[in-house]
Amino acid sequence: MGYEKDFPMQQIVDKDGFLILEDYKDKITRDLVLTFYRHLIRVRTFDRKAKNLQRQGRIGTYAMFEGQEGAQVGSAMALKENDWMYPTYRDHAASITFGHSLPTILAYWKGRVEGGVPPKGKHIVPPSVPIATQLPLAAGTAMAEKYKGTNNAVICYFGDGATSEGDFHEGMNFASVFKAPVVFFNQNNSYAISVPIEKQMNSKTIAQKSAAYAIPGVRIDGNDIFVVYFETLKALERARNGHGPTLIEAVTWRYGAHTTADDPTKYRNQEESEKRREFDPVTRVEKFMKNYGYWDDEWVENQKQLVEEEINQAVIEMEAMPSPNVSDLFDHIFAEPTWTIQEQKNAYLTHLRGEASCNH
Amino acid sequence: MQSLTLIQAITDGMRTMLRERDEVLVLGEDVGKNGGVFRATDGLQEEFGESRVIDTPLSEAGIIGSSVGMAMNGLLPIAEIQFMGFIYPAYEQIMTHATRMRYRTMGAYSVPLVIRAPYGAGVRAPEIHSDSTEALFTHMPGIKVVCPSTPYDAKGLLISAIEDPDPVLFMESLRLYRSVRGEVPEGKYSVEIGKGVKRKEGEDITLIGWGAMMPVLEKAAMEAEKKLISCEIIDLRTLYPIDKDIIAESVQKTGRCVIVHEAHATGGLGNDIISIINDTSFLYMKAPIQRVTGADVHVPFFALEDHYLPTPDRVMEAIEKAIYF
């Protein structure tokens, strides 16, 4: 039963921002650290802004990711331009980092189908909603890359609750059998809405589930963006080199509710969340920057201001979107609408124009 | 022209498209080395290799889910589900992803996927091997459903399904697999999805069916002829989108209609056909439309399957009910 020993939680930078693995000293460039920091404050500011927009009724239900930024930014930064990303509804920090547009993400949460459209030239699949269903898709997309003989890889996000679903197994097994170039990136935040991980599984780690598929499994501190980035990079390299999938378990924490529609105090003591701030992924990079001489008040202030402006601009753009086009209700079901859809569309548009025909 | 059984025509359709386009792959349980439990993929792995004709793990959600992921990434997968009664683990993948990806991305991604599934009762198969649950899928937005009854249509519709930019569920009557034979052209041709076909001209009543029910309709029509009732027979071939025009044109001529399917009555496709007749031809009808269908019971253990399936006798009764209304 020594699975925790077999899959120890790896760190590169500790909670106080000190490098604990000297091997990485040369790999951690100034540019990398500043890029981490810029992305981290960008997505955190975005997340808080989006939550406020929901409170003000300017977008719909929203799934906050605060606390999980290290896992999402670090893993997304490891991707290459032509890779594929399969995020869930809590992974927009990852999709933003990979290049999704902020107004599009906001549009998604405003209930606009435009929010599912990937940015031009980037493979970002719309957030997966039914839990774990994206794993078999990611395996298939990776199998297709392999079939085409490219070096592209796929990253697939999912949470701890997803590991209880059959699709988790089916996706992992397919990827393993066909040596598909995919990285299964688990964010273990210990809660599936209200259900704690002890009630979700008897296994002590998620990484150990890799053993069943004979693929590498890695357990990392998901709030240490350094280990997230470098371990994802390694897993992607393995995938690109034909060595198949990897399961990464990034241990993290969501400070807030599952979404703006639930109240976490009903199922857990939120003091725990406050204590977890000690391990915060953003402040850890701040501490690192201060510890190693990368901190520059002026640069940081400047970055914060740029991020603030960018996000405010995104909100303006989202709110300036023209009203939803009723045609979009009908037009994207098939490449060419079937006669039933065409008739229904015509009838509804006629109704909207107040021209419903009446023979009497 | 070659003379092929329905299943040989399906194999020929796959072979034709595997030859034509490198993006076409076949995957499923036992489709490779074994050539499929019904031999529908016989010889394909030998000809096209293991990277194109893929034996997968025993995992319907995995087969369909991975096929969706492939289709989004430029391939044209033909996924085999061994029996329609085993498709349900994949139902979520079809409902959630295969049929929705185009809508959810406003066309940035599409899913040109063909799902082949043998369906239907009447061959003394073990339980749950005989389901006919097309209505679960015709109800689902974003997927077309076809069901050929002749070798010619099987190959032509399969080729159309493979070339269709959206998901198509391709239902194969296992009862017809080897019991029908017909002329099938070599090479590529297509039968348009969404078009039914008139199998027999008639004056007094329209019989509508598809797949395994076609021989039942033909027998019933022969019986009816003996009683001087002239039946027109329509083979729908596509179950979504249904060929509205061929139905309307026929019932406006005959004024009477019997719809036959082996699926359960409630929520069955017969009801949609009645709606089409209601919308297009209400004032032409001389009698209530009759349905001969499976009851709202599970497809039974095979000892009772003959009592479940529509028979020429039951169809004949329905014809007379409509004629003598």
Automatic annotation (TrEMBL), chain A:
Q: Does the keyword Phosphoprotein apply?
A: no
Could you say which EC number(s) this protein's record lists? Answer: 1.2.4.1
Q: Which GO terms describe its molecular function?
A: pyruvate dehydrogenase (acetyl-transferring) activity
- Reaction catalysis annotation: N(6)-[(R)-lipoyl]-L-lysyl-[protein] + pyruvate + H(+) = N(6)-[(R)-S(8)-acetyldihydrolipoyl]-L-lysyl-[protein] + CO2
| Gene3D superfamilies linked | 3.40.50.970
* BP terms from Gene Ontology: branched-chain amino acid catabolic process
Keyword field: Oxidoreductase, Pyruvate, Thiamine pyrophosphate
- Which cofactor does this sequence's record say it needs? thiamine diphosphate
* SUPFAM superfamilies to which the protein is assigned, alphabetical: Thiamin diphosphate-binding fold (THDP-binding)
Which positions fall inside the Dehydrogenase E1 component domain?
41-326
Q: Which InterPro entries match?
A: Alpha-ketoacid_DH_E1_comp (IPR050771), DH_E1 (IPR001017), PdhA/BkdA (IPR017596), THDP-binding (IPR029061)
Indicate the quaternary assembly: Heterodimer of an alpha and a beta chain.
Primary role = The pyruvate dehydrogenase complex catalyzes the overall conversion of pyruvate to acetyl-CoA and CO(2). It contains multiple copies of three enzymatic components: pyruvate dehydrogenase (E1), dihydrolipoamide acetyltransferase (E2) and lipoamide dehydrogenase (E3).
UniProt name for this protein: Pyruvate dehydrogenase E1 component subunit alpha
State the species of origin. Ureibacillus endophyticus
UniProtKB/TrEMBL annotation, chain B:
Does the keyword Zinc-finger feature in the UniProt annotation? Answer: no
What this protein needs as a cofactor is:
thiamine diphosphate
Q: Name one GO molecular function term.
A: oxidoreductase activity
* Keywords tagged on the record: Oxidoreductase, Thiamine pyrophosphate
Which residue intervals define the domain Transketolase-like pyrimidine-binding in the entry?
4-179
- UniProt organism field: Ureibacillus endophyticus
Keyword Oxidoreductase annotated:
yes
User: Could you identify this protein by its name?
Assistant: Alpha-ketoacid dehydrogenase subunit beta
Q: Which InterPro entries match?
A: THDP-binding, Transketo_C/PFOR_II, Transketolase-like_Pyr-bd, Transketolase_C
